[in-house]
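Convert to structure. Protein one:
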Amino acid sequence: MTIKIGDRIPSTILKCLTEDGLQDVRTEELFEGKTVLFGVPGAFTPTCSAKHLPGYIIKTDEFRAKGVRAIMCLSVNDPFVMQAWAKSAQADDKITMLADGNGTLTKALGLEMDGTPYGLGIRCQRFALVAQDGVVTQLAIEQPGGFEVSSAEAVLKLVG
């Protein structure tokens, strides 16, 4: 079942690669206060790298001005890929890159997609959500192949 407005973010553990090495991070810790999470099908993929992630990097200050404590990017990739993507996009101090290597959170959100016809395996749908203390207040899920409702510009309009 797909997550919806009013639902609590499922309790899971994700991996983040920090200066101290590989760290477990619980969703309960990640979603304190007002947060934005956007999901992408894959690091370094065309739309994700050219539009989705860069939009949030550019708009970070506007999100912060609206009280957003953290902006997070979720992808079914390993932590090393997510760190390399953050470095190449210069997102290190703006976006928290969440590696969902096994698709645990993606599946718990009900937002997985089957990319096996393209050699990608199970991936995350393109989406964005706003949460307040772990409860979803806004949700925007893209149609397959779309990039409209989950862009940084669109989500800024949803953040109160």
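Protein two, convert as well:
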Amino acid sequence: MNRTNALILLPRLQVQSANAVSGPLSWGFPSPTAFVGFAHALQRRLSHLIERGFGGVGIVCHRFDPQVSRPAGKRTQVFNLMRNPLGKSGNSASIVEEGRAHMEVSLVIALYDDIDSDEQSLFAEQVMEAAHGMRLAGGSILPQRSGKRYDADYVSLSPALSERAVTYHKLTRRLLPGFMLIQREDKLAKHLDEMRKAGKGSHTLDALLDLSRINYEPDLPDEDNPEERHWGIRKHSGWLVPIPVGYAGISPLYSPGEVRNSRDAETPMCFVESLYSLGEWISPNRVGDLGKALWHQQTDVENGIYLCTSHYVDSVTTNEISIHKERS
């Protein structure tokens, strides 16, 4: 297995009109698949400079501004849609709703190659320059702002774990203020086990929805008078969110050109559905081992699965997570 020799920090990227609807069940921050795919595309652009390529990618959000509004007299929010092009009568045509958001993110990309010390700063600049010529989660990356705070950085990693911990600590301070997206399959598995012990006969989707929504319950203790019970919102530890993390095939793999009106007539095609998992936003300074907070891509060709995972919690194995094939 390749060893991570360095981290490339791309700080404070301003992204305009990123995709805010990356799954059929949720909307909001883009899926980790968008960032892992961005790192893979960036690696291909820099293939003349690196041999072993990039590893995982860490996602830190500093600002997220969804393009939504609440119409007068309504209690729900709607996306601000461009509705182009207009019909011959001047009315807007029926379209598939698109959600957009402006955001400011920092990316921490693991590097397997070992760059010479006198070329590390130049390499970081080349990575940043290539990134600004790409799209991130469907959005446009705005020009880089001036100042050392916005410059890309090459962070060398020592083989010694103690020295790596010091490096991680210094790097996470540069990511503040912000929140880092990590995967929390351990909390999802624990909550599912609690629901099943309560005799609810729940599936993993039930546990995911139960952790993601606001639950009003009638039998919560009163903080002022513990002997009394009252209606209230059930509280969970942490900022938990449902996140789409990949795709699972739901059809055979068709030969190129076999499916009519497919996007590419030269590539095999398979129909897929989204896979969901549980994520958590945490402050970067709470991440002890930054390497375990990076997102990686996994593929299972036999089962038709493309998955993005982070190894923040090692106690949950791939077989224990629900997002693979369990369906109600």
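Residues 314-328 have pLDDT under 50 and may be disordered. The chain has five helices and 15 strands.
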